[in-house]
Amino acid sequence: MMQRGQTGGWFLFLLTAVIPGVHLQRHSSVQPASESELPSEAQIHQPVLQPSEAVPPIGTYVVTNLVGKPCIKATMGAEYIVTEKKTWYFNLDPSRVRTSGFCGEGAAALSLTLPGDAASLQFTFRKENNIFYVDKLTAHVSPLPVCQGCANKSYSGSLAHEKLFAAGNGQSFKCQSEQLLWTSPELRIKLVPLQMQAFTLPNGQYGIEVECQHDFTKRVIPIIVGAIVVGLILIAVLTSLFIKDRRGGYTRL
User: Fold this and answer.
1) pLDDT in tens, 217-232
2) 8-state DSSP, 49
3) Residue 6: C-alpha distances to residues 3, 10, 18, 88, 120 (Å)
4) β-strand 86-91 against 107-113: which pairing, if any?
5) What is the rounded CA–CA span in Å between residue 35 and residue 16?
6) Which of 146, 154, 80 is nearest to 112 (CA)?
7) CA separation (Å) from 214 to 58, 165, 170, 221?
């Protein structure tokens, strides 16, 4: 005798064979996500603010001119510091950065951008009397909310009409010390370490390094302090010998 479940199965099979438009379908609780539900590229790469600071990864970024020769080169680690009730940190990941820019006769620009413009950093260069420098720095970051229920918020700022990271034509500005730049009350940019050169890069390589003031101070102060200590010791030894010699002269009398 055929069981009821088997009979029902054969009935459905015959029904689909005879009546067009009827299809068997398995029941499943898993539904494929619609295109509107899938996360966008910008959401995937949207910055996540961290409560503690970490050393930013170092990347090298190059811009070429119209003939394909490097005209801007920068090596740096970049950290965004956001102040929103408390301090938050975000490090720029070189592997996700899109590099763009241009080079002209007296002006050039280097732009570092994350997908979906989730974060960006732009340097505008000027050249005057065989000296190049950064005339303007613009920064922007649109992070994920720092808490559940917190509103989305973007942070941006800029420094204009400055003469930052100056060096001679064919030379490179270099600084191992951190460069902390206030672009707005809510957003600071820390660059550490930093080396950059614009307009003239023979063979795409950095030229003679121009040391920043912070590095110079760090290097020179120990030398000065050491020289002062040696001088004081020398004065003390000579004074001691002079006193002993005077005392010896009194004894002979």
Assistant:
1) 876 566 666 667 677 7
2) -
3) 5, 6, 19, 65, 65
4) unpaired
5) 32
6) 80
7) 20, 12, 22, 11
C-beta of residue 89 within 8 angstroms of C-beta of residue 80: yes
**Distances in whole angstroms, Cα of residue 219 to Cα of each of 111, 121, 213:** 32, 30, 10
pLDDT recorded at residue 85:
85
Q: For 56-108, how does the pLDDT look when each residue is reduced to its tens digit (9 = 90+)? A: 999 999 999 999 999 999 999 999 999 988 999 999 999 999 999 999 999 99
CB 49 within 8 A of CB 81: no
Q: pTM here?
A: 0.73
CA distance 55 to 58: 9
Q: What is the mean pLDDT of residues 185-200?
A: 97
Using alpha carbons, list the distances in angstroms from residue 162 to 32, 179, 183.
53, 14, 12
Reported as a pLDDT band with limits 50, 70 and 90, residue 24 is very low
Pairing between strand 86-91 and 155-168? unpaired
> For tokens 């940190």, what's the residue?
89
SS3 per-residue string spanning 75-110: EEEEEEEEEECEEEEEECCHHHCEEEEEECCCEEEE
Residue type, 212: C
- CA-based end-to-end distance of the chain: 143
